[in-house]
Each structure stands twice: as C-alpha cells, then as structure tokens.
Design brief:
Rossmann fold, Alpha-Beta Plaits, 2 domains, six-stranded mixed sheet, four-stranded antiparallel sheet, binds adenosine-5'-triphosphate, transport, ABC transporter ATP-binding protein
Length: about 300
C-alpha cells in the first residue's frame, strides 16, 4: 500500500530523513514514533507528496505519481489549519465544497461526520472557541469529508487531555474497522502501544519497526521496578555506578534497567539499605514501550 525505499530528504544541511525503508500494509494502524526532530512529519509529508527533491523511491497506493491520487488521502496536520472564525458547521461544509462533494450530499455527510466525531451539538460554535480536543476532532472530521482510503495524522493529540485523547483514538479504531489505513505520528508511547505496528525513529533514521509486542519481546535487558519515596539524586548515581544500565523514573516509581536481575537485585537492596532508604517494592517487571524507546534512544538500540 505504501512503500519507501532508501528515501533520504535533506533540508539544506539538515537531515530530514535518512535512508528510510518502510512498508505500510492496507488496513494497518501504523505509528511513526519518536521524539521531536526524529523525522516523523517529514516522513508523512513525503508520503503525501508534499516534499520534492528527495532521493529513493516512494510508492503510495501502487503509484509513484502521488499527485494523481491525493484525493484518496485524508490529512490532519500538526497545526490546526481550519478557519478559527468560522463555525464548526461552516468549516466542514467549506471543506466538503473544496473537495467537490455534491451540494445535495454535503448536508447529510456533514451531519453524519459531526455526529460520529461527537461535534454535532457544537456545530454552531466558532472553531476558535473549541477546546484543544474538539479542535482535533474537527480536523479529523474535515479529513473525512471525502472518504479517504488512507488517513495521515501528524501528532493529532498533542496538548489534548487524556480523556479526549482516548476518545480520539476510539474514533481512529472505528475508522480502521471500516478498512481505512491509518498512519499516525506520535511522541506518546501509550499511543504507540495502540498501533498495530510502529516505526521507531531517531534523528531521521528508522531504528526499529515491529508490533509493540515484538518490540517488547526483543528488549535485551531486564527491568526491576523499584518503588521508593527516595528523592536523593546521589543514590540514583550510586545505583547507576553499580550495575544498573539506566534508570527511567515515573514519580516515586523507577524502572532500573539491568542485565541480570538476580545478582543486581541484591546489590540494589544493599545500596538502598546502606543509604537508609525504604524500599516499598523491588521486583522484575515486563518492560513497557517507553523502556524500549529509552533504551534505543540512549544506548544505541538494536539497529
Ligand atoms: N522545512 C524545513 N526546513 C528545514 N529543516 C526542516 C524542515 N522540516 C523539517 N526540518 C528538520 O528536519 C528534521 C526532522 O523534522 P521533523 O519535523 O520531520 O521531525 P518530527 O519527528 O516530526 O518532529 P516534531 O514533532 O518536532 O515535528 C528536524 O531537524 C527539523 O528541524
């Protein structure tokens, strides 16, 4: 459905993406995951045919002539790009007209899509007055007016609260059930876990591409989950000097990344006891995608 072969795109001296090889299958929810500057937006814009002067080959829906098939895409860009001084309804009707939806169909389609996205009751509100989550739903609604086969979404939930994010993903799942292929860029690991497959990107390169479960299974280290009220950075430093490869902290919870959990566990216990630090919990736990990503980002990964 979408294939990138050895694609490199530079912006003057800056690398956008480098020697990127990707294959996205029809019907997938495919995640482009990585920190700011990883190359996610560049990848999406290349697939949309919006960037020229790249090397390599890009095929979308069976053609390299992406210009010709643009009408089969939906796109939610990173920045809200609809008219803030038009109402929800006016924006959607305008988009419908721009996409050439027949006048006789616009009304029915608008109602259906705004109902689907939960925006019907807000249809008379100015778009500029919507909450962040509603704005993103409106951008999604706009992208649906011409029934796309592939929907590209660039960090669609950035800055949106957790409940609205969950609702937004529910909509993506509903759309995917109808057979729509979804390509979504996200910096959030919890969203990456919702994708069928993810491409982990860093500095313009693909670091790993697999299902979330495969990425977790291939994780080469052990994780010890430590729960402690300690706040002392020096203790963390001592742990790191010991045998711990890295520490991811989640409030009072720490994920200690180690090579061998049994030997290390004892050494960690001893260190904390020496520092008179309480241990509420210290046991092996399965890594989450965030651990995988941090390992890849900090330790060179499994290139
Ligand atoms: N039009 C441009 N001109 C110059 N440099 C660019 C341009 N677009 C992207 N870049 C650079 O290319 C690299 C990849 O950027 P890109 O926007 O694709 O990353 P990203 O993963 O989407 O990050 P973000 O979440 O910050 O958008 C960055 O170093 C960025 O500064």
């Amino acid at each position: 459905m979408i294939e990138l072969m050895h694609v490199t795109k530079n912006f003057s001296e800056v690398i956008g993406v480098q020697d990127l090889n990707l294959r996205i299958e029809q019907g997938e929810i495919f995640g482009l995951v990585g920190p700011d500057g990883a190359g996610k937006t560049t990848t999406i814009r290349l697939m949309l045919g919006l960037l020229k002067n790249f090397t390599g080959k890009i095929t979308v829906l069976g053609t390299e002539n992406i210009e010709r098939i643009k009408g089969r895409f939906g796109y939610v860009p990173q920045k809200f790009s609809l008219y803030q001084d038009l109402s929800v309804l006016e924006n959607i009707e305008l988009i419908g007209a721009l996409y050439g939806v027949k006048n006789s169909e616009i009304q029915e389609k608008t109602e259906k899509i705004l109902t689907f996205t939960g925006l019907w009751e807000f249809r008379h509100r100015l778009s500029g007055n919507l909450s962040g989550g509603m704005k993103q739903k409106l951008a999604l609604a706009a992208g649906l007016m011409h029934k796309p086969e592939v929907f590209f979404l660039d960090e669609p939930t950035t800055g949106v609260d957790p409940v609205a994010r969950r609702e937004f993903w529910q909509l993506l799942y509903e759309l995917n059930k109808t057979g729509m292929t979804i390509v979504v860029a996200t910096p959030y690991m919890d969203e990456a876990e919702l994708c069928h497959r993810v491409a982990l990107m860093k500095d313009g390169s693909l670091v790993s591409c697999a299902t979330p479960n495969q990425l977790i299974e291939n994780y080469p280290y052990k994780i010890l989950s430590l729960e402690t009220p300690m706040k002392d950075e020096r203790v963390l430093g001592d742990l790191l000097k010991l045998i711990v490869l890295d520490i991811n902290s989640f409030g009072e919870k720490y994920h200690l990344i180690v090579k061998d959990d049994k030997v290390v566990k004892k050494a960690i216990q001893d260190t904390l006891v020496n520092h008179k630090i309480a241990i509420n919990r210290l046991e092996e736990t399965t890594p989450c995608l965030e651990d995988v990503f941090v390992a890849i980002a900090h330790m060179g990964g499994d290139k």
